[in-house]
Request: fold
Amino acid sequence: MGYYEPYRGSRRNKRRKLHIFLLCLALLLALLVGAFFLLQEHIVYTDDGKIRFDFQKDDQTAASQPDSGTDTGTDTDVPLVIGGDGTQTTTPSTETPTTPETPATPETPAAAGFTAALLTTPQEVLAGLTLPQGYDALAVTVKDENGLCWVADPLSAADGTAADAAAFRTALSQLDCYKIAVIDALRDPIRPRTVDRASACKVASGAIWLDYNYVSWFSPYASGTGDYLTALLKSCTDAGFDEVVLDDFQFPTHGKTDLISYAGETLDKAAALTALADRLRTDGLTVSCLLTEKAAQGGSDASAGQDAAALAKSFGKVWMRCQTAADAAALQSSLGESAVALWLTQTPETPVTAAHIVAK
Reply:
Protein backbone atom coordinates (compact mmCIF):
# COMPACT_ATOMS: atom_id res chain seq x y z
CA MET A 1 0.00 0.00 0.00
CA GLY A 2 1.47 3.39 -1.00
CA TYR A 3 1.98 6.33 1.29
CA TYR A 4 2.24 10.08 1.02
CA GLU A 5 5.48 11.92 1.81
CA PRO A 6 5.12 14.99 3.97
CA TYR A 7 4.84 18.17 1.93
CA ARG A 8 7.75 20.55 2.70
CA GLY A 9 7.37 23.12 -0.07
CA SER A 10 5.89 25.79 2.19
CA ARG A 11 8.86 25.71 4.57
CA ARG A 12 11.36 25.90 1.74
CA ASN A 13 9.58 28.92 0.29
CA LYS A 14 9.64 30.65 3.65
CA ARG A 15 13.36 30.02 4.04
CA ARG A 16 14.02 31.32 0.53
CA LYS A 17 12.02 34.49 1.20
CA LEU A 18 13.87 35.02 4.47
CA HIS A 19 17.23 34.66 2.72
CA ILE A 20 16.18 37.13 0.03
CA PHE A 21 14.97 39.59 2.68
CA LEU A 22 18.21 39.35 4.65
CA LEU A 23 20.24 39.79 1.47
CA CYS A 24 18.27 42.90 0.51
CA LEU A 25 18.67 44.26 4.03
CA ALA A 26 22.43 43.70 3.89
CA LEU A 27 22.66 45.44 0.50
CA LEU A 28 20.61 48.37 1.82
CA LEU A 29 22.86 48.72 4.87
CA ALA A 30 25.93 48.58 2.63
CA LEU A 31 24.49 51.34 0.44
CA LEU A 32 23.70 53.49 3.48
CA VAL A 33 27.19 53.05 4.91
CA GLY A 34 28.75 53.85 1.55
CA ALA A 35 26.56 56.92 1.14
CA PHE A 36 27.52 58.11 4.62
CA PHE A 37 31.25 57.95 3.87
CA LEU A 38 30.73 59.69 0.53
CA LEU A 39 28.53 62.44 1.95
CA GLN A 40 30.07 62.95 5.39
CA GLU A 41 32.16 65.92 4.23
CA HIS A 42 28.93 67.64 3.19
CA ILE A 43 27.14 67.05 6.53
CA VAL A 44 26.60 70.25 8.53
CA TYR A 45 25.24 70.36 12.08
CA THR A 46 23.13 73.44 12.78
CA ASP A 47 22.97 75.36 16.09
CA ASP A 48 19.73 73.63 17.04
CA GLY A 49 21.24 70.15 16.62
CA LYS A 50 19.69 69.34 13.26
CA ILE A 51 21.58 67.88 10.30
CA ARG A 52 21.62 69.26 6.78
CA PHE A 53 23.73 68.69 3.66
CA ASP A 54 25.80 71.49 2.14
CA PHE A 55 26.94 70.76 -1.44
CA GLN A 56 28.13 74.30 -2.15
CA LYS A 57 31.53 73.80 -0.55
CA ASP A 58 33.08 71.98 -3.54
CA ASP A 59 31.45 74.35 -6.04
CA GLN A 60 32.85 77.37 -4.23
CA THR A 61 36.28 75.77 -3.94
CA ALA A 62 36.34 74.92 -7.64
CA ALA A 63 35.14 78.40 -8.57
CA SER A 64 37.87 79.99 -6.48
CA GLN A 65 40.62 78.08 -8.33
CA PRO A 66 41.62 79.11 -11.88
CA ASP A 67 41.27 76.64 -14.70
CA SER A 68 44.56 74.86 -15.46
CA GLY A 69 44.45 76.03 -19.08
CA THR A 70 43.80 79.69 -18.28
CA ASP A 71 46.59 82.26 -18.20
CA THR A 72 46.52 83.82 -14.77
CA GLY A 73 48.89 86.63 -15.59
CA THR A 74 48.07 90.25 -15.05
CA ASP A 75 47.50 90.84 -18.78
CA THR A 76 44.14 89.11 -18.57
CA ASP A 77 42.84 92.03 -16.53
CA VAL A 78 43.59 94.57 -19.32
CA PRO A 79 40.75 95.19 -21.84
CA LEU A 80 41.48 93.91 -25.38
CA VAL A 81 40.61 96.21 -28.33
CA ILE A 82 40.50 95.02 -31.99
CA GLY A 83 41.21 97.88 -34.42
CA GLY A 84 39.70 98.42 -37.88
CA ASP A 85 42.80 96.90 -39.54
CA GLY A 86 42.49 93.77 -37.50
CA THR A 87 45.36 94.60 -35.16
CA GLN A 88 44.92 93.88 -31.48
CA THR A 89 45.89 96.40 -28.84
CA THR A 90 45.36 96.69 -25.12
CA THR A 91 44.18 99.69 -23.18
CA PRO A 92 44.71 100.19 -19.48
CA SER A 93 41.66 100.16 -17.27
CA THR A 94 40.31 103.56 -16.33
CA GLU A 95 38.45 102.22 -13.28
CA THR A 96 39.43 103.83 -9.99
CA PRO A 97 40.66 101.19 -7.56
CA THR A 98 38.42 100.80 -4.57
CA THR A 99 39.90 101.56 -1.18
CA PRO A 100 38.79 99.24 1.61
CA GLU A 101 36.65 101.02 4.16
CA THR A 102 38.25 101.65 7.52
CA PRO A 103 36.12 100.10 10.25
CA ALA A 104 34.45 102.68 12.44
CA THR A 105 35.99 103.11 15.87
CA PRO A 106 33.50 102.22 18.60
CA GLU A 107 32.21 105.27 20.43
CA THR A 108 33.80 105.61 23.86
CA PRO A 109 32.24 107.27 26.91
CA ALA A 110 34.98 109.94 26.98
CA ALA A 111 34.43 110.80 23.31
CA ALA A 112 30.72 111.22 23.99
CA GLY A 113 31.32 113.60 26.89
CA PHE A 114 30.61 111.10 29.66
CA THR A 115 32.70 110.17 32.64
CA ALA A 116 33.06 106.40 32.79
CA ALA A 117 33.36 103.64 35.36
CA LEU A 118 34.60 100.23 34.35
CA LEU A 119 32.15 97.48 35.30
CA THR A 120 34.12 94.45 36.44
CA THR A 121 34.11 91.42 38.75
CA PRO A 122 35.75 90.64 42.10
CA GLN A 123 37.91 88.03 40.38
CA GLU A 124 39.45 90.69 38.14
CA VAL A 125 40.14 92.88 41.15
CA LEU A 126 41.89 89.94 42.82
CA ALA A 127 43.95 89.45 39.66
CA GLY A 128 45.43 92.93 40.04
CA LEU A 129 43.08 94.99 37.88
CA THR A 130 44.16 98.55 37.14
CA LEU A 131 41.89 101.17 35.60
CA PRO A 132 42.50 101.77 31.91
CA GLN A 133 43.31 105.30 30.83
CA GLY A 134 40.20 107.45 30.57
CA TYR A 135 38.33 105.73 33.40
CA ASP A 136 37.95 107.45 36.74
CA ALA A 137 35.73 104.98 38.60
CA LEU A 138 35.36 101.27 39.17
CA ALA A 139 32.07 99.36 39.49
CA VAL A 140 32.17 95.85 40.96
CA THR A 141 29.36 93.31 41.24
CA VAL A 142 29.66 92.32 44.92
CA LYS A 143 26.42 90.34 45.16
CA ASP A 144 25.49 88.52 41.99
CA GLU A 145 22.41 86.78 40.61
CA ASN A 146 23.47 83.55 42.34
CA GLY A 147 23.36 85.24 45.75
CA LEU A 148 27.13 85.08 46.22
CA CYS A 149 28.32 87.97 48.36
CA TRP A 150 31.84 89.49 48.33
CA VAL A 151 31.25 91.86 51.25
CA ALA A 152 30.23 90.88 54.77
CA ASP A 153 26.90 89.04 54.60
CA PRO A 154 24.52 90.43 57.27
CA LEU A 155 22.56 87.15 57.34
CA SER A 156 25.59 84.83 57.26
CA ALA A 157 23.82 82.52 54.83
CA ALA A 158 25.42 79.15 54.18
CA ASP A 159 27.22 79.17 50.82
CA GLY A 160 26.36 82.86 50.54
CA THR A 161 29.83 84.33 51.01
CA ALA A 162 32.65 83.96 48.50
CA ALA A 163 35.69 82.05 49.73
CA ASP A 164 38.02 84.88 48.67
CA ALA A 165 35.83 87.68 50.02
CA ALA A 166 38.42 88.86 52.57
CA ALA A 167 41.20 88.87 49.98
CA PHE A 168 38.95 90.79 47.60
CA ARG A 169 38.31 93.52 50.15
CA THR A 170 42.05 93.82 50.76
CA ALA A 171 42.75 94.13 47.03
CA LEU A 172 39.92 96.67 46.68
CA SER A 173 41.39 98.87 49.41
CA GLN A 174 44.57 99.25 47.37
CA LEU A 175 42.73 100.84 44.44
CA ASP A 176 42.68 104.62 44.58
CA CYS A 177 39.53 105.57 42.68
CA TYR A 178 35.80 106.14 43.05
CA LYS A 179 34.27 102.72 43.81
CA ILE A 180 30.74 101.58 43.03
CA ALA A 181 29.22 98.36 44.38
CA VAL A 182 26.53 96.66 42.29
CA ILE A 183 24.29 94.27 44.22
CA ASP A 184 21.35 92.09 43.24
CA ALA A 185 18.95 93.49 45.80
CA LEU A 186 15.59 91.68 45.97
CA ARG A 187 16.23 88.68 43.73
CA ASP A 188 18.09 86.13 45.87
CA PRO A 189 18.16 82.34 45.38
CA ILE A 190 19.57 81.69 48.87
CA ARG A 191 18.48 83.89 51.77
CA PRO A 192 14.67 84.14 51.36
CA ARG A 193 14.55 80.34 51.13
CA THR A 194 16.77 79.64 54.12
CA VAL A 195 17.75 82.23 56.74
CA ASP A 196 15.06 84.89 56.18
CA ARG A 197 11.92 83.09 55.09
CA ALA A 198 9.78 85.68 56.89
CA SER A 199 10.84 88.29 54.32
CA ALA A 200 10.26 86.15 51.25
CA CYS A 201 7.54 86.47 48.64
CA LYS A 202 5.02 83.71 49.42
CA VAL A 203 1.88 82.13 48.03
CA ALA A 204 -1.40 82.08 49.95
CA SER A 205 -0.51 78.82 51.72
CA GLY A 206 2.66 80.36 53.14
CA ALA A 207 5.04 78.44 50.86
CA ILE A 208 7.97 80.31 49.34
CA TRP A 209 7.18 81.57 45.85
CA LEU A 210 9.76 80.91 43.10
CA ASP A 211 10.06 82.47 39.67
CA TYR A 212 10.53 80.60 36.38
CA ASN A 213 14.22 80.07 37.23
CA TYR A 214 13.34 78.64 40.66
CA VAL A 215 14.70 81.76 42.35
CA SER A 216 13.18 83.28 45.48
CA TRP A 217 12.64 87.00 46.06
CA PHE A 218 12.56 89.33 49.05
CA SER A 219 9.20 91.03 49.45
CA PRO A 220 9.40 94.84 49.38
CA TYR A 221 6.55 94.86 51.91
CA ALA A 222 8.47 92.89 54.55
CA SER A 223 10.21 94.92 57.25
CA GLY A 224 13.01 92.36 57.32
CA THR A 225 13.83 93.19 53.70
CA GLY A 226 14.67 96.78 54.63
CA ASP A 227 16.70 95.60 57.62
CA TYR A 228 18.73 93.24 55.44
CA LEU A 229 19.43 95.79 52.70
CA THR A 230 20.38 98.47 55.23
CA ALA A 231 22.91 96.11 56.80
CA LEU A 232 24.22 95.13 53.36
CA LEU A 233 24.75 98.79 52.49
CA LYS A 234 26.81 99.18 55.67
CA SER A 235 28.93 96.20 54.58
CA CYS A 236 29.59 97.99 51.29
CA THR A 237 30.59 101.15 53.16
CA ASP A 238 32.93 99.16 55.41
CA ALA A 239 34.51 97.60 52.29
CA GLY A 240 35.39 101.05 50.98
CA PHE A 241 32.68 101.70 48.39
CA ASP A 242 31.50 105.23 47.67
CA GLU A 243 28.24 104.26 45.96
CA VAL A 244 25.88 101.28 45.71
CA VAL A 245 23.68 100.51 42.70
CA LEU A 246 20.72 98.25 43.52
CA ASP A 247 19.92 95.91 40.64
CA ASP A 248 16.61 94.01 40.62
CA PHE A 249 15.17 96.61 42.97
CA GLN A 250 11.63 95.70 41.98
CA PHE A 251 8.76 93.30 42.45
CA PRO A 252 9.22 90.02 40.55
CA THR A 253 7.75 90.00 37.05
CA HIS A 254 8.84 86.63 35.63
CA GLY A 255 6.85 83.61 36.69
CA LYS A 256 3.35 83.04 37.99
CA THR A 257 3.31 86.30 39.90
CA ASP A 258 -0.47 86.13 40.31
CA LEU A 259 0.12 83.38 42.88
CA ILE A 260 2.06 85.71 45.18
CA SER A 261 0.00 86.76 48.18
CA TYR A 262 0.35 90.32 49.51
CA ALA A 263 -2.69 89.96 51.75
CA GLY A 264 -3.24 92.79 54.21
CA GLU A 265 -0.96 95.26 52.46
CA THR A 266 -2.57 98.64 51.82
CA LEU A 267 0.16 100.31 49.73
CA ASP A 268 0.33 99.69 46.01
CA LYS A 269 3.56 98.34 44.55
CA ALA A 270 5.02 101.69 43.50
CA ALA A 271 4.34 103.24 46.92
CA ALA A 272 5.81 100.22 48.72
CA LEU A 273 9.01 100.27 46.65
CA THR A 274 9.40 104.03 47.08
CA ALA A 275 8.93 103.65 50.85
CA LEU A 276 11.66 101.00 50.87
CA ALA A 277 13.94 103.35 48.92
CA ASP A 278 13.35 106.06 51.56
CA ARG A 279 14.52 103.62 54.25
CA LEU A 280 17.77 102.93 52.42
CA ARG A 281 19.09 106.49 52.23
CA THR A 282 22.43 106.39 54.05
CA ASP A 283 24.66 109.24 55.22
CA GLY A 284 28.07 109.16 53.57
CA LEU A 285 26.99 106.67 50.88
CA THR A 286 25.31 107.33 47.55
CA VAL A 287 22.53 104.78 47.00
CA SER A 288 20.80 104.37 43.65
CA CYS A 289 18.88 101.75 41.72
CA LEU A 290 18.72 100.39 38.19
CA LEU A 291 15.44 100.99 36.40
CA THR A 292 13.73 98.35 34.31
CA GLU A 293 13.62 99.01 30.58
CA LYS A 294 9.92 99.80 30.77
CA ALA A 295 10.36 102.26 33.64
CA ALA A 296 13.30 103.94 31.91
CA GLN A 297 11.48 104.43 28.63
CA GLY A 298 7.97 105.11 29.87
CA GLY A 299 8.56 106.56 33.33
CA SER A 300 6.89 103.72 35.20
CA ASP A 301 6.61 99.94 35.33
CA ALA A 302 3.46 99.00 37.22
CA SER A 303 4.15 95.26 37.42
CA ALA A 304 7.67 95.86 38.77
CA GLY A 305 6.46 98.64 41.07
CA GLN A 306 8.93 101.19 39.71
CA ASP A 307 7.99 104.85 39.41
CA ALA A 308 11.10 106.43 37.90
CA ALA A 309 10.44 109.96 39.12
CA ALA A 310 9.57 108.84 42.66
CA LEU A 311 12.65 106.62 42.93
CA ALA A 312 14.86 109.38 41.54
CA LYS A 313 13.51 111.70 44.25
CA SER A 314 14.07 109.14 47.01
CA PHE A 315 17.57 108.05 45.97
CA GLY A 316 18.73 111.25 44.29
CA LYS A 317 19.94 109.14 41.37
CA VAL A 318 18.63 106.31 39.21
CA TRP A 319 20.40 104.27 36.55
CA MET A 320 19.16 103.20 33.12
CA ARG A 321 20.55 100.78 30.55
CA CYS A 322 21.19 102.04 27.04
CA GLN A 323 23.34 101.22 24.03
CA THR A 324 24.70 104.53 22.71
CA ALA A 325 25.52 108.02 23.86
CA ALA A 326 22.42 109.30 22.06
CA ASP A 327 20.26 106.85 24.00
CA ALA A 328 21.93 107.90 27.23
CA ALA A 329 21.22 111.57 26.55
CA ALA A 330 17.61 110.87 25.59
CA LEU A 331 16.94 108.75 28.66
CA GLN A 332 18.57 111.24 30.96
CA SER A 333 16.59 114.16 29.57
CA SER A 334 13.35 112.31 30.26
CA LEU A 335 13.99 112.39 34.02
CA GLY A 336 16.24 115.39 34.43
CA GLU A 337 19.46 115.73 36.38
CA SER A 338 18.75 112.81 38.72
CA ALA A 339 18.86 110.28 35.88
CA VAL A 340 22.09 108.54 34.95
CA ALA A 341 22.74 106.08 32.16
CA LEU A 342 24.25 102.61 32.27
CA TRP A 343 25.80 102.41 28.84
CA LEU A 344 26.46 98.86 27.65
CA THR A 345 29.02 98.89 24.87
CA GLN A 346 32.53 97.71 23.99
CA THR A 347 35.74 99.58 23.28
CA PRO A 348 39.12 98.29 22.07
CA GLU A 349 40.71 99.22 25.40
CA THR A 350 38.58 96.95 27.55
CA PRO A 351 37.90 93.20 27.75
CA VAL A 352 35.06 91.73 25.74
CA THR A 353 33.11 91.01 28.93
CA ALA A 354 33.34 94.59 30.17
CA ALA A 355 30.58 97.15 30.10
CA HIS A 356 30.57 100.79 31.04
CA ILE A 357 28.64 102.62 33.68
CA VAL A 358 28.52 106.24 32.62
CA ALA A 359 27.15 109.44 34.04
CA LYS A 360 26.95 112.97 32.72
